[in-house]
Specification:
With 123 residues, this protein is mainly α. It has five helices and no strands. It has a domain at 12-90.
Length: 123
Amino acid sequence: MTQIEIDKEEILKTSKWIRFLFMLLYGFVINFVLTLCIGLAIVQFLFYLFTSKPNASIANFNSHLLEFFHDSLAFLLFQTEEKPFPFKENEDDVNNDVEGEVIEAELETDNSSETEDAEEAKE
């Protein structure tokens, strides 16, 4: 029989245990999100049934749920090391963090028209 060597240091790495805790957390959250998706699908069907078109607000929210679900599953299945929402940076957040260049300018005024207005006011 061959004996398997167990590296105790590898097992006790805190980063691995933190990932395990995040995996448990996201596992429970995915369960909740799946239930929420089924409920929203029923509500969306009711909108479709009565108005012949889906609700745009629910459809927008569903796209966010789908992105979260995909990111969470990818994290749970070791497809990525990047944690999903709220730890993931969205493209919108990255674009909003970019600061534009500040340009200072002076406003030039026409002094002749101001003096004419002041003279007319005196008269």
